[in-house]
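pinned: reference chain
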Amino acid sequence: MSFSDILRYIIPALSAAVLLRCALPLLLNGGRGQRTLAILETPQKGPIELTSLENTVGRSLTSDIRIKSPSVAPVQGAIIGTTGGQWTVYDLKGDGAVYLRGKRVKGSAALEDGDRIRFGTVETVFSLPAEEEEENNPRAAFMPQILLTLLIISVYLASGGAPGVLFLFAAELILSWASFFMSRLMEKPAETETLAFLAVTLGFGAIASSDPSVCYKEALCLAAGVLFYWGLCVLMEEPRRAELFRLPAGLLGLGLLALALVSAPTILGAKNWIKLGFISFQPSELVKAAFVFAGSAPLLKTLDHRRNIAFVVFSALCVLALAAMGDFGTALVFFCAYLVMAFMRSGSFGTLFASVSGTVLAAFLAVLAKPYIAQRFSTWGHAWEAFNEGGYQQTRTMIASASGGLFGLGIGQGWFKSVFAADTDMVFGLIAEEQGLICAFCAVFAILALAASCVNTVAASRGAFYAISSCAAATVMLTQLALNVFGSLDILPFTGVTFPFVSKGGTSLIASWALLAFIKAASARWEGGSAE
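pinned: its structure tokens
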């Protein structure tokens, strides 16, 4: 057995090991390792630990702290804290049914340890927890990073020793370890970014095989994406600091879309790219993070009807701009994220129904006005009937995916890389052919694990902003993943969106890391709660 044959088996094994070691703590631990920020003693349920900075109080099932009493409104009040340890009680109903230290709360009042709060006729006691010594498990924390390091080296060895390829994987190795130590500095588990680096490694293996000339650019974009990621993580550590950037982010997003509409050339029916000198970028990719940032909001602002209307208008402008650019795949991604954010902000199924109804009508009118839109979906489900025409890419993807088997033909040994957009829109087929179906599914499940982890963290996230933004970011990733993989396999219409972290493209890679920051920031787990 040759060295290249050994690597064909080592790479899938290491990929599966990294995936399992990082995904299981995210999926199974859920609330393990959450910090208790405050305690509210209630007569009905005893002491309730507050692990979120924003907590609604009322008799409704949707309230974070439920008090079953007819004297309490469905959403009576809120207890909100800051990362600095300052807590405030709010009377959201405004009916004077919230009392602090025997005095009626008018709007809001600052809380102190041991304060008695009365909601209606029910008296509760607010207290701060005693500080506990944190326990870390550095040996368990190092394990996924060592596995990832071995995977990066293995993929590099399998992909050849060109200078650009060496620079690409060396840069990734340095950035992955720097990210690991940054996570430890912030007292957070490193599984989130390690899963992202797993997907990046498999994607870089495909890029090194199909287009080694872009390795230097991809390495620089990875560095920019990781720096952007950690910058956003630090920014969002303090909710009030993050709140200051929501409006600028929204205006920046609209500005980028307007710039693309005005100045971007039409390429393959869409105005996606802007070129400034020797730099070209895709505005719609960068707007994804701005859209999530601007659409998320703290608890008190989600209860403001006027602000929710402003969010609907902002979302409509973004989706309409993307449709006018001809980028219908990205428009669909934005719309799915909008539905999640709209429901989490309002809790109203009526809002979702009206949004979906309006979108279906708009899509029907668009097809009537521009028949070429319908032609793009004419081969959906009939790719084999148009083997050398409209279904050319999809049929080749399916053939390549099957021909690689579980362990692949070896990096650089496949033929699929010669197909147009093999390392972008059809990258699942390229990985499956050369690195094997195990690696291709590891890339898929890495994104699924990141998205599924939001289900565990959202209930105990530090506030509404973190819950909404993480779920919206996960929705963007999941929608892109489904459209890319299922579209290339003719299960869904082919829309040409990228595979997060995996597809070639600097702007897409930077945007993926920016979205990951919302998932990381929402995590309530700390390093001492990492799985052993």
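why pinned: The domain at 39-127 is CATH 2.60.200.20 (Tumour Suppressor Smad4). Residues 14 and 151 are 6 Å apart (CA to CA).
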